[in-house]
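Shipment paperwork, digital attachment
Item: protein structure file
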Amino acid sequence: MPYIGHLTDKTTCKKMLNIIYVAGAFNALVFLIINPATHDSLLSFIVILLSTAVFTLIRASDQVIRSTYMKKVLPEHKLYHANRLLEMVRQGITFLSGGIAFLILQDKSIQNVCLIALICFSLSLVINRYIPRDIINEVDASRTPEPKKLTMYHKGYVFFLGDKKRIIELLSLFPYICVVFLNALYPALFTRIGAPVSAYAILVVPYGLGAIVGSMLNTQSWMPTLKSVYVIFGSGFIIGLLLPLFFKNLPAVYICLFMIAFCHSHIRVRRNTLIMTQAESKELARILAFNEVLFICLSTVLSLGLSLIADRLDFWLAWEIVIALNSMVLLLIVLTKNPAAEPCTPMESAAEHDR
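Attachment content:
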């Protein structure tokens, strides 16, 4: 990821998108040809692991590159609205994928998954031909170039934890981490409540619907800071997680998915827009890549740890730990002071431009 961020800051986002879409199509094609199901279990596991790692890198890179592209081509007062639309489109795809997943799970072959991935990456390449080309960031020739390895991580670290602390922006990444590592617990959750496989297959439908509704209603003109947004919607996120713990039935799980997606979309849009408005275009990709590295590392560790707790000890203990972690992050944000000089919020910037 740091290399992706560095390259994105040094070239055009359109070129980087083409590169990762070609890599994704190639990965899907190789997976389709090899067909791990026809080989022994160890080889199948290795192929699936490597292929999944590539897809994870592509997904993370795509988010970094798209956000950097918006920063380059849009005026600041339009970034908030653009992030809302981006979240709506992203979760709309999640919503539609629920129906596709339901159909795919009727066939035990993984070939259909690879075929759909190949088609999606190919379509992305075609669409990318028609988006406007962004400009390459200008390099100040008078500045002494920093060591490449230093800039890859240093830019993100300085942005969040340098002279100007952005602790709230950093902590507000946790719901994003949470919605990913929860995927490791969902199969066991549906088993515990006695839900059928078909109910698990469409779990992305209530989640995607919650995020879409959240994006549509995401104005937040009455909430001036990211902290106020997080206190309200972070609390809603925790309330959603409490529902399966108390009621232990399918409707409670679906309402939980809707609520955490609804609340996460509000936090994510405000957080991303704030980072995009505060960071310089020439450094944004490396800052966002730093974010993604933190996200991948923490979500992986928490997925493994909570899965072990759920399998070896008790599933509901693992779920309670998730709630406790979210409560701790919320408490830390409540106790963290806002910066002495708050920058103009994205909503204020847009309102000022309209006037």
